[in-house]
């Protein structure tokens, strides 16, 4: 095919992975990416965490909060001045789907569900943890050798860094405590380790955090041949996927600056607009496979905050090492995370993911009179991710008779934890308490976060091997019944997963994008 055009909906890491593989794999192809939100960072899609100026950072976050940006901010429940950004703290840069006003979704059973509305998507606000899935978290229809290649490619796109903060003596001490507590029950290779992250370490010890900009790479660098064939249109809301029988023909797009609507023809359409808004767009376009919106999962999080015990830590870290670490961190005080460790999912003994983040300050304002306030050895925020077993009745519904704030069929989420999940939640709650005692004094928790808090929503457009009503997409992420309509994102993950899913979703996207390259060049 001569000079094919690929239209991509959404500029998060997944849409960008498609763009990169397609532009690099097809020398004549042109990719047009539509993003409903504004560009809030420079370079486009980069992490807000890289913005040094606090006021500029706050503004970038606020501009990403969709219908709740600006003056509606308080109704989001996102507190101002949260001290530490992290896995289990308030999600600035996002807005609740059920924000409570007119045009809001209905999500009483999944109240913390949230999304971002900006170039880079949630990938401009994420924590950048990119662990690999393991054991039954993996997709069983992709062979191990291909999976290894896909996941390594995904790690390359996300600028994988495997030993972030590994020089932290406190991080090392935390790993020793984790080994003491749980080491005996973990299989070889699945013990405590540093948490892999997306980012580029800098010579001064700081980090440039990863985002969609890194995934796009040469596509957004001035003067590269790739940039000439890539166009990113922000504030462009895709209203409908157009199709003729089994072929997508393009997208109908509203330019939110001018309010003009136009049709953009395309040879392939990729929808990567998150786990709720992608199925919503398919539904609004009349594309309604039986599994669309069903099998919703996330990983549930049981978390706590601990003030590290001076005596315990002093036995594992010398005063000199501690002083040196404090001095090094003072160089980059704006980025408070100082060490991130984990114990990955393994079966059968440890079907959970534990993530342990160390920082000098707690993730909330602690009363100065609190006995743990101003703890010299700092604080650990940690939590277990617990899997949710997929069920068709955990789902998002779309209602054609009630429109949301964007004019799309409104969403209602129905979701329930069952005995299976509650049993594992009880086990990790006990384990977390035990671990907290081994590390110091509990300041908060352990507690189960409200449904939706992980922000890792999966299953609503799951991939499968058969068009049997339990999946939306085929093993190459093409919507069943369509030749050239491809979906991407965490929604494709069909398994019960306990950890940060973006790396997995980028790997799935690499597979889908390579298939597009093959087909368009063939
Ligand atoms: P998104 O990044 O959500 O991007 C989708 C984009 O599509 C959005 O920008 C949206 O505006 C746009 N869009 C929606 N509808 C339309 C439309 N009709 N037309 C045009 N554009 C549209 N994941 C991890 O793996 N590790 C982590 O450590 C981690 N931490 C996180 C911390 C926070 C605070 C948050 C918010 C998220 C975190 N995540 C993490 C989740 C991670 O960011 C997502 O998994 C990832 O961004 C998903 O990428 P995506 O491209 O599928 O979707």
Continuous helix count:
10
Query: What oligomeric state best describes the polypeptide chains here?
Result: single chain
Q: pLDDT below 50 for ≥5 consecutive residues: which ranges? A: 72-90
Q: Let me know the number of strands.
A: 21
Task: Write a structural description.
With 522 residues, the chain is α+β, with helices and mostly antiparallel strands. It has helices at residues 13-25, 54-63, 144-157, 169-182, 212-216, 277-284, 310-314, 319-330, 419-439, 502-521; strands at 5-9, 30-34, 95-96, 114-115, 160-161, 193-194, 197-201, 207-209, 230-233, 236-244, 247-255, 260-265, 268-271, 300-308, 337-343, 352-359, 379-386, 395-403, 409-414, 440-448, 485-487. The chain has ten helices and 21 strands. The strands form six sheets. It has a six-stranded antiparallel beta sheet. Helix 3 (144-157) crosses helix 10. Mean pLDDT is 92; it is low at 72-90. Flavin-adenine dinucleotide binds next to helix 1, strand 10, helix 6 and helix 10.
Task: Write a compact overview of the structure shown.
By secondary structure, this protein is of the alpha+beta class.
Short key terms for the protein model shown above:
522 residues, 5-stranded parallel beta sheet, binds flavin-adenine dinucleotide, alpha+beta, 22% strand
């Amino acid at each position: 095919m001569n000079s094919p055009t690929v239209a991509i909906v959404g500029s998060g890491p997944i849409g960008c992975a498609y763009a990169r593989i397609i532009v690099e794999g097809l020398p004549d192809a042109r990719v047009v990416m539509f993003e409903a939100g504004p560009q809030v960072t420079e370079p486009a899609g980069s992490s807000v965490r890289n913005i040094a100026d606090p006021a500029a950072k706050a503004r970038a976050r606020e501009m990403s909060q969709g219908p709740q940006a600006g003056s509606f901010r308080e109704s989001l429940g996102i507190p101002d001045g949260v001290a530490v950004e992290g896995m289990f703290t308030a999600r600035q840069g996002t807005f609740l789907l059920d924000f409570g006003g007119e045009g809001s979704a209905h999500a009483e059973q999944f109240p913390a569900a949230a999304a971002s509305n900006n170039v880079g998507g949630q990938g401009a606000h994420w924590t950048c943890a990119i662990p690999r899935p393991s054991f039954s978290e993996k997709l069983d229809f992709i062979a191990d050798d291909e999976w290894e290649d896909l996941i390594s490619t995904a790690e390359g796109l996300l600028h994988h860094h495997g030993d972030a903060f590994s020089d932290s003596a406190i991080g090392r001490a935390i790993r020793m405590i984790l080994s003491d507590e749980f080491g005996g029950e973990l299989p070889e290779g699945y013990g405590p380790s540093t948490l892999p992250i997306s980012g580029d370490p800098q010579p001064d010890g700081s980090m440039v955090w990863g985002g969609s900009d890194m995934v796009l790479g040469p596509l957004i660098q001035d003067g590269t041949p790739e940039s000439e064939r890539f166009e990113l249109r922000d504030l462009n809301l895709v209203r409908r996927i157009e199709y003729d029988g089994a072929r997508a023909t393009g997208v109908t797009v509203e330019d939110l600056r001018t309010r003009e609507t136009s049709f953009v023809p395309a040879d392939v359409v990729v929808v990567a607009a998150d786990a709720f808004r992608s199925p919503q767009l398919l539904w609004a376009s009349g594309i309604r496979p039986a599994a669309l919106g069903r099998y919703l999962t996330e990983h549930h999080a049981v978390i706590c905050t601990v003030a590290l015990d001076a005596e315990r830590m002093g036995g594992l870290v010398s005063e000199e090492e501690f002083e040196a670490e404090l001095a090094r961190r003072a160089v980059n005080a704006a980025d408070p995370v100082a060490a991130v460790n984990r114990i990955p999912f393994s079966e059968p003994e440890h079907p959970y993911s534990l993530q342990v983040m160390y920082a000098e300050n707690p993730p909330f304002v602690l009363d100065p009179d609190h006995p743990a306030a101003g703890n010299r050895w700092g604080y650990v925020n940690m939590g277990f991710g617990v899997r949710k077993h997929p069920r068709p009745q955990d789902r998002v519904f779309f209602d054609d008779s009630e429109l949301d704030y964007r004019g799309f069929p409104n969403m209602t989420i129905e979701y329930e934890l069952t005995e299976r999940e509650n049993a594992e939640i009880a086990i990790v709650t006990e384990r977390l308490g035990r671990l907290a005692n081994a590390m110091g004094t509990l300041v908060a928790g352990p507690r189960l976060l409200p449904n939706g808090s992980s922000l890792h929503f999966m299953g609503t457009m799951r991939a499968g091997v058969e068009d049997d009503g339990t999946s939306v997409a085929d093993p190459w992420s093409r919507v069943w019944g369509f030749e050239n309509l491809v979906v991407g994102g965490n929604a494709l993950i069909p398994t019960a997963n306990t950890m940060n899913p973006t790396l997995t979703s980028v790997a799935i996207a690499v597979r889908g994008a390579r298939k597009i390259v093959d087909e368009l060049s063939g």
